[in-house]
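TASK: fixed-backbone design
INPUT:
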């Protein structure tokens, strides 16, 4: 089961993705998460923030999806297509 980190304020997205079978963890991106990037398959955020993982040159293989302006269904479709 793939693990998704999701911004705390995206509760409808969290519930929807959990219902679709993902393990979803709400996290606060204002804290430093650079040491945890390898623990997630994807990150769902609102608005692309520079340095959102607390480091300047993010080196992660995780998918990053900007949920701003998208429905939970659209985010799910994007996760399905990008997570292999």
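OUTPUT:
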């Amino acid at each position: 089961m793939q693990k998704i980190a999701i911004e705390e304020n995206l509760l409808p997205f969290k519930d929807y993705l959990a219902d679709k079978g993902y393990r979803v963890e709400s996290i606060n991106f204002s804290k430093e998460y650079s040491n945890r990037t390898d623990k997630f398959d994807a990150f769902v955020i609102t608005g692309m923030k520079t340095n959102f993982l607390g480091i300047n040159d993010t080196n992660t293989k995780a998918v990053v999806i900007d949920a701003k302006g998208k429905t939970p269904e659209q985010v799910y479709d994007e996760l399905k297509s990008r997570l292999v």
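COMMENT: The two ends are 12 Å apart (CA to CA).
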